[in-house]
Write a structure and sequence with these properties.
The chain is of the alpha/beta class. It has 4 helices and 40 strands.
């Protein structure tokens, strides 16, 4: 399917600069352009590529000022990255979607399935499950008893949802996601063994949550582990039992959240960061990659390092650490000079 620059500009509420009738049928990266495609420029690091691109159309911010002649048609928008997201969403929705129930699959007689759903082969739907409309459940998905799933949610192949969990509308769970596995609860015994603490709670995931491949959200010991609306989790993230993630918080790959941690709204957590249990992270906090957070954090803080430090202090500390070899040599030289002075007394 082809779209003209004028068509795309109308969709994005943008302004065309150049040939509005030029058409594209696909999308490409600006540093790997292909003729007849559309690309975008939002990161200034890639500005140099716009002058040599063979892509037909480039989406740019309204304030972009070219320094050299361009061979492509521009579509100017408020935010090129947001516009691309909107365009990709539109492109995805124009693709054919799967419908119907494939066999072999198992659906309990007590389960309720909504309208226009897709149920892939080898999927399992347990007792008293309630599934909304337009839900897509790909092959090899397991949905335990008494699970609720809202409208327009997508569960990709291999997703496992344990009994009693609640999933909102317009969620996306990628392959291998596990919701509601037992939290890590064991009571130590005097002889060095451990007694398992049964996890009798569940997981509640609100609307518009996206969870990456092989990420796990553990069941609460009692009560609920809660993922609020708009949360985005990358691949291989671990959310411990009885934790709560606030609205629109995002976490990159390999983040680990220990049990009973409370994470505020609109937080950003970098890859491989670790957050201890039973602490509270305020709203709007930014946590850098590989940061270790072991105590409660005030709202809007920016942290880096292990253990976590204020970002500015952490950068000063890292700068000192880089200079430690030279500082060591200076100390050794000073010690030698002091010894000479003392020997000559």
């Amino acid at each position: 399917m082809e779209f003209s620059a004028n068509d795309i500009a109308t969709l994005l509420n943008g302004e065309v600069e150049g040939n509005g009738n030029v058409k594209v049928s696909n999308i490409s990266k600006i540093d790997q352009p292909i003729p007849g495609t559309l690309t975008f420029l939002s990161n200034p690091t890639y500005t140099k590529f716009i002058y040599t691109t063979t892509a037909s159309i480039v989406i740019v911010n309204k304030d972009f000022i070219p320094e050299n002649k361009l061979s492509c048609t521009l579509i100017r928008v408020e935010d090129a990255y947001v516009a691309l997201a909107k365009l990709l969403d539109f492109y995805t929705k124009t693709k054919p979607t799967k419908m119907g129930i494939e066999q072999p699959s198992f659906v309990s007689k007590s389960a309720t399935l909504g309208e226009q759903i897709y149920l892939g082969a080898f999927a399992y739907i347990g007792d008293n499950v309630l599934i909304g409309n337009n839900v897509k459940i790909y092959p090899h998905v397991y949905i335990g008893d008494n699970v609720k799933i809202g409208n327009d949610t997508i569960l990709y192949s291999g997703v496992k949802i344990y009994a009693g969990c609640s999933i909102g509308s317009t969620c996306i769970f990628h392959a291998g996601v596990v919701i509601g596995a037992d939290g890590f609860g064991f009571a130590p015994n005097p002889d060095g063994t451990y007694t398992k603490i049964e996890q009798i709670g569940n997981v509640i995931i609100e609307d518009n949550v996206e969870i990456g491949a092989n990420t796990t959200v553990d069941s609460a010991t009692m009560g609920s582990t809660i993922i609020r609306k708009g949360v985005k989790l990358d691949n291989l993230v671990q959310i411990g039992h009885n934790s709560e993630l606030g609205q629109n918080t995002v976490m990159a790959a390999q983040v680990g959240i220990a049990g009973s941690a409370i994470i505020g709204k609109n937080c950003v957590v970098g890859g491989q960061a670790g957050i201890s249990g039973h602490i509270t992270i305020g709203d709007g906090v930014k946590i850098g990659p590989q940061t270790g957070v072991m105590s409660t954090v005030k709202p809007n803080s920016v942290l880096l390092g292990a253990p976590a430090l204020d970002f500015k202090l952490a950068m000063k500390t890292f700068s000192i650490i880089r200079n430690l070899p030279e500082l060591r040599n200076d100390v050794i030289e000073l010690q030698k000079k002091v010894k000479i002075i003392e020997d000559n007394k």
